[in-house]
Amino acid sequence: MYYSGHCKDRDRQKWRCPLKVKNADSTCHCSTSHYGRVVYTHSQDNLRLFPKTPRSCPTWKGIYDKRTAAERVFKRQKLDFKLTFF
Ligand SMILES: [Zn+2]
């Protein structure tokens, strides 16, 4: 789906059919509407997909670097050293 912006009034993201956005009408059969199929997602529904810290900011980069470092340590302990925790 093609990201078509944020609706402030209802606090949700709008996604449109990518074929309709590109005006490739003949190949799209997802909706009878001229505008194409529209799907909305709500930010508060899934914090993993829509985190409170935007992914484009430097703060996110620092948080993500720490998170992946922790995951690498867990992988090293569980898979490489074959440690199990009871
Ligand atoms: Zn479509």
Attribute tags:
86 residues, alpha+beta, 2 domains, 2 helices, binds zinc ion
How does this structure look, described?
There is one protein chain. This protein is of the alpha+beta class. The chain is built from 2 helices and 3 strands; from the N terminus they run ββαβα. Strand 1 and strand 2 form a beta hairpin. 2% of the residues are buried. The mean pLDDT is 87. The structure holds zinc ion. Zinc ion binds next to helix 1.
Q: Can you tell me the overall shape?
A: elongated
Work out the number of β strands.
3
Q: Identify the strand order in the major beta sheet.
A: 1-2-3
Number of domains: 2
**Overall pLDDT score:** 87
Strand content: 15-25%
What is this structure's SSE topology?
Layout: E1 2-7, E2 12-16, H1 18-21, E3 38-42, H2 58-80
Antiparallel strand pairs: 1-2, 2-3
Zinc ion is lined by residues 17, 19-20, 28, 30, 36-37.
Summarize the structure.
The chain is built from 2 helices and 3 strands, in the order ββαβα.
